Amino acid sequence: MIATAFILGLLGSFHCVGMCGPIAFLLPLDRQSNSKKLLQLALYHLGRLFTYALLGLLFGLLGKSLYLFGFQQQLSVAVGILMILAVVLPQRILSKFKITTPLYSLIGKVKSSLGAQLKKRTPDTFFAIGFLNGFLPCGLVYMAIFGAVATGELFNGTLYMLAFGFGTIPLMTTAVYLGNFLKGDARQRIRKTIPVFVIIVGSLFILRGMGLGIPYLSPKPLKASIEAQYECHSISFEETKNENEP
Predict the structure, then answer these.
(1) Residue of 3, 6, 7 whose CA lies nearest to 193
(2) CA–CA gap between residue 63 and residue 78 (Å, rounded)
(3) In terms of Cα–Cα distance, which of 101, 136, 98, 99 is closest to 117?
(4) Digits of tens for pLDDT over the chain (246 positions)?
(5) Cβ 52 vs Cβ 165: under 8 Å
(6) If DSSP codes are grouped into helix, strand and coil, which group holds residue 26?
């Protein structure tokens, strides 16, 4: 599942260039020294990765809490369904739910802080810009957060979001150096693949939650596996006992 996070970030970065590209283009990079420019850009990406890791940790903790209450399978199925619905349902229907309304004030503060950081040129500026950038609302980040929750673990949730963040780095870096290098039909074709991939990831989470006993894709629940092993050992013990009896 971690690999799907990286691919989601890689494909989603075509969307990210449109949403976060203006911020990347406005970075106060040193245009005279390539080494300094590369270091500054690395700090920017590091800031974004730190935010994604933090989000993965927090939502992985949420998933772990639900896992401890025995909702791991249901959670995985629910996350898969939410991912698919987010792609399939028309935007006008989704907008009625106003999920992000309570966050508007916080987002406004993030944008204000981001604007202030873009005017600076201190060494910590680039990390701070990346850190704040990671908190800006983005549908694909929400998809990755769903995945982090479904992992049901702190470490895996963090790793899932980090993989997503690493997936966005190649194209975001290319955009900084080459600008808007993808035009017209190519950009449209790639953007059309993103919803398809989100549906595939959502289907994988549903399959995973069904516990069909398929290795790696849909493993049996831990409890069921333990019970099966216990029954197997019990049968083996009984057979051995019967063979040894006169």
Answers:
(1) 7
(2) 12
(3) 136
(4) 788 888 888 877 776 666 665 666 777 788 788 888 888 889 999 999 999 999 999 988 888 887 777 677 787 888 888 888 877 776 665 555 555 555 556 666 776 777 777 777 777 888 988 888 888 777 788 888 888 888 878 888 899 999 999 998 888 888 777 765 556 666 667 667 778 878 888 888 888 778 777 776 666 765 544 344 444 444 444 555 555 555
(5) yes
(6) coil
